[in-house]
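BUG: 3D viewer hangs when loading the predicted structure for this chain

Environment: internal workstation, default settings.
Expected: structure renders.
Actual: progress bar stalls at 90%.

Input used:
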Amino acid sequence: MSSASDRTAPRGEAAKARMSRTEASVRFSPASAGKRSAGFTLLEALVVVALMALVAGLAFPRVERLRESADFASARTALTGAVAAARARAIRTDAAVSLTSSPDNTALLAGGTLVARLPPGLRALPQGRAMTFFRDGSTSGGAFILIGNRQRATLTLGPTTGRLQWRD
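Structure tokens produced before the viewer hung:
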């Protein structure tokens, strides 16, 4: 009777021969030096980097406009909040309080106290008379123009109703 290893020996020898041929073809040789490997060439990498730069260059202006729009919306909210803060201060102190702009028009002052600072690049210009709030919360009315790089809006405060209205 023959052993199991005697029966599989011929197949094992054949497998060893096939593996040796495969190993020889994988090894580096001068003949295989010109063949393409499984990586990227410098030219391919440069093309990808150039395409990424092009896409980034096209996307940047849109991102910048979105940021400016967000800053403008933030400034509108700040100006509306400054009006409410000035009215509340007039009622709390039982004295008239005027809402004015700082000398460089980048901040809002209620009775000389800073109540809002505008995002960079935006200005709030008072129009006509000062926006004054009296001790009972009533107002003299007034307006501010909010100016950005690409946007402009006017906040008007009605003297009889005290209603705020934004116009673009």
